[in-house]
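Hi P.,

Sorry for the delay on this. The queue was packed all week, but I finally got your sequence through. Input first:
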Amino acid sequence: MKILFLLFPLILLLVQGAAGDIITCRRKGGSCSFLPCRYPTRAVGRCSSVQVCCIR
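Then the structure:
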């Protein structure tokens, strides 16, 4: 049970850091994807450590 108190702040920090990049990607007109960007789109950044920002 004690480990939950240690993991909770870590999870909050990860979520907070990822939220800013998702907003930046959406402002550019892009979308976040777990998969690589397909042909008409191209990668212009990262939304999180596992997501890519794809823009047309």
